[in-house]
Write a structure and sequence with these properties.
Elements: H1 10-21, H2 24-31, H3 35-49, E1 54-56, E2 61-63, H4 65-86, E3 99-104, H5 106-119, E4 125-130, H6 135-143, E5 149-152, E6 161-169, E7 171-176, H7 188-193, E8 195-201, E9 206-207, H8 208-212, E10 221-226, H9 229-237, E11 243-246, H10 247-253, E12 259-262, E13 271-278, H11 285-299
Parallel strand pairs: 3-4, 3-5, 8-10
Antiparallel strand pairs: 1-2, 5-13, 6-13, 7-11, 7-12, 8-9
Keywords: DNA-binding, Transcription, Transcription regulation
Protein name: LysR family transcriptional regulator
InterPro entries: LysR-type_TF, LysR_HTH_N, LysR_subst-bd, WH-like_DNA-bd_sf, WH_DNA-bd_sf
Length: about 300
């Protein structure tokens, strides 16, 4: 092991990035280096430690046991340093031309775009991106800086991610106003006798009713299945199918789509809406501003 006063800490920065990406070329792109410079840095670190940190594969590299151990010891310290430095980063919403990316669930994305345009009076662009179905994809993108913020209906399970429960969304049953069998209310038995336009909640690997109901439900007869809330609402408006929707969003389309909102005839939980960000950006001015704008749009 080298003496600490001769140790190049930049080598650890390269190591941490290669460990996360599993690729010299991807790390080179993220660190604004050439692949050969990344490879050279890892060789230098191997020599300094007297250990091999990565083995080459057909595609990319694979971390050795020593690399796993080193990452566990070094990563928290570097995150603490990064958090301290990022807290000093200056940001002015009036002067910036920066673009931010936010993951947003499909069922909220169109409404979110409209609300953000109303509350964001700065020169910054806030780009909404459909939330991936896989938690690993979501939080890998957040922690590597591919996106700046996540809006989700599940709280994060990772230690490096901070979160805030912003609001709850009520759920209602939606039906065509000219439905031949359903009037101003619907009973439990009638609800399950009708066909349903089912909204898939991809983050739950399930459908909305089955996920949010407080008790197990009988099997519903399927009319159609939808990943998009707006596709589901349009289908309900032009068929005899029943659907479920966040009440606030259904009200916005009630008159234009000729749909009626009904109380659901069984107990159902509200949808939780969380905002999530990297803990290392807790005190970062730009991320703090973005969080405030997104929270404001969710509460409007």
């Amino acid at each position: 092991m080298p003496k600490t006063n001769h140790f190049d800490l930049n080598l650890l920065r390269v190591f941490l990035n290669v460990y996360k990406t599993g690729s010299y070329s991807m790390s080179a792109e993220e660190l604004d280096l050439t692949p050969s410079a990344v490879s050279h840095a890892i060789k230098r670190l191997n020599n300094q430690l007297g250990e091999t940190l990565f083995q080459r594969k057909n595609v990319g590299v694979e971390a050795t046991f020593v690399a796993h151990d080193l990452f566990k010891q070094v990563a928290p310290a570097f995150e603490t340093i990064e958090m301290s430095i990022l807290g000093y980063e200056k940001f002015s919403s009036e002067e910036t031309n920066r673009s931010f990316k936010v993951f947003v669930p499909d069922i909220f994305i169109a409404d979110m775009i409209t609300k953000l345009e109303a509350v964001n009076t700065s020169n910054a662009d806030i780009i909404c991106v459909a939330l991936p179905p896989n938690e690993e994809q979501i939080y890998d993108a957040l922690l590597t800086g591919e996106v700046d913020l996540v809006v989700d209906y599940i709280p994060p399970s990772l230690g490096g991610v901070a979160s805030k429960l912003v609001t709850h969304e009520d759920i209602c049953c939606v039906v065509n106003k000219q439905h031949p069998r359903v009037g101003d209310s619907i009973s439990y038995s009638q609800y399950f006798s009708e066909a349903h336009a089912k909204l898939n909640l991809r983050r739950f690997d399930n459908r909305a009713a089955e996920t949010l109901a407080k008790e197990p439900l009988p099997e519903r007869r399927t009319h159609s299945e939808h990943n998009s809330l707006y596709s589901m609402l349009y289908t309900v408006a032009h068929s005899e199918a029943l659907g479920l929707s966040p009440t606030r969003l259904a009200r916005e389309f009630e008159s234009n789509l000729n749909i009626r909102l009904l109380e659901i005839p069984f107990e159902i939980n509200k949808i939780e809406v969380w905002v999530c960000w990297p803990k290392k950006l807790e005190n970062n001015q730009a991320n703090h501003w973005l969080r405030s704008i997104v929270v404001q749009s969710l509460l409007n």
